Amino acid sequence: MEDRDLDVWHMQRALHLAAGGQGHVEPNPMVGCVIARGAEIIGEGWHRKFGGPHAEIEALEIAGDRAEGATMYVTLEPCCHHGKTPPCTKAILDAGLGRVVVAMRDPFPEVDGGGIGELRDRGVPVETGLLEVEARNLNAPYLKLLKTGRPWIIAKWAMTLDGKIASRTGAGRWISNSESRQIVHAIRGRVDGILVGRETARRDDPMLTARPPGPRTALRIVADTHATLATESLLVQTAREFPVLVAIGPSVTDTGRRRLTDLGCEVLVCAGDTPDERLGSLLDQLGERRLTNLLVEGGARLLGSLLDMGQIDEVHVFVAPKLIGGAEALSPIAGEGIEQMPQALLLDAHEFRQVGSDLYLHGRVRR
User: Fold this and answer.
1) Nearest to 317, CA basis, from 250, 362, 262, 253
2) Hey, how many other C-beta atoms are within 10 angstroms of the C-beta on 3?
């Protein structure tokens, strides 16, 4: 095997390992590491949980003394600062590695080229950019949070073959089959927050929990400008067990806020004169809390606003072989929408597959 092919092979392994941290490490990035001598892997690891050992440290512990003179393949620039763990650059230098191959630079301000620079300054050859596109795709939510201060938005909906998410009377349970709903529960179990609009909370009375539980317990969020979330709703009734945040407008009275806080909900005031301004305020505040992945489960008005704002990053769509018709029946995305077909958003890295009787589509919005 050629040296270049060998490097790619080891970095692919490191990327595969890194993906094992999804849902466990956020708001930190997912990172994987392989240490090798030629084709032989002598150590490997990944960042397994927030605050835990970094991928490089796991791999170095396995490699032991054999790391001296070997090559390290790591999907993200090694850290060079004291955070929750000591700097990885020090461990790399102490181990005497002969070469380090880095997929991408870490834009985190306390790293941002400093780790690569430190290793090079101490005489360690560092190569960068190998499978960088794949590494950036893996950590796209982390990169968006760093760049924009807002979470990665994952839009999810189930619809009939004629593009409806509910009948003309508002009935929408259940459009998708049980296998599709299992996929949704798995997504819920790895995200930081789940957002719905006021009408979805009223009409569907959802729990918005992952069943069975996943690695994360998502913050359940309702965009509810006038604080009308019903006291008897499942969200409110379970607020002391699973966290609920109600995002309200500035005009809600103290009495209206207390009704929800007394029942165990957190109330967050979102400034702005228009719904889009208040939604932008909500996203900014969630970003300040370091929420990395936000799943949005509707309704159509909320998804339409996010689409018009250019904030939807990823979609998960379940299409059921059903027809319900009705001019008044809801479609998945409202809002202003586009004017001409060339303006339509396209999906990259999209995947189609059959799930029982449903068709499942997953992809990322092309930027």
Assistant:
1) 362
2) 8
Sheet holding 358-365, edge to edge: 266-269, 244-248, 219-223, 193-197, 293-296, 152-160, 314-320, 358-365, 347-355
The pLDDT tens digits of the residues spanning 19-36 come to 999 999 999 999 999 999
How many C-alpha atoms does 70 have within 13 Å on its Cβ side? 27
d(CA 95, CA 329) in angstroms, rounded, equals 64
Pick from 99, 81, 138, 124: which is nearest to 292 by CA? 138
Active-site residues, by number, are 56
- Given the structure tokens 């929800």, which residue do they identify? 260
- Dist. CA 263–CA 275, nearest whole Å: 26
| Pair 115, 78: CB distance under 8 Å | yes
Question: pLDDT of 48-80, one tens digit each?
Answer: 999 999 999 999 999 999 999 999 999 999 999
197-206 pLDDT per residue, tens: 999 999 999 9
Q: How far apart are CA 66 and CA 83, in angstroms?
A: 27
Give me the pLDDT at residue 1, please: 64
Q: What angle do CA 194, 187, 200 make, to 5 degrees?
A: 35
Return all residues near 69 (Cβ < 8 A) that are at least 6 apart: 37, 96, 97, 98
**Predicted local confidence at residue 4, as pLDDT:** 87
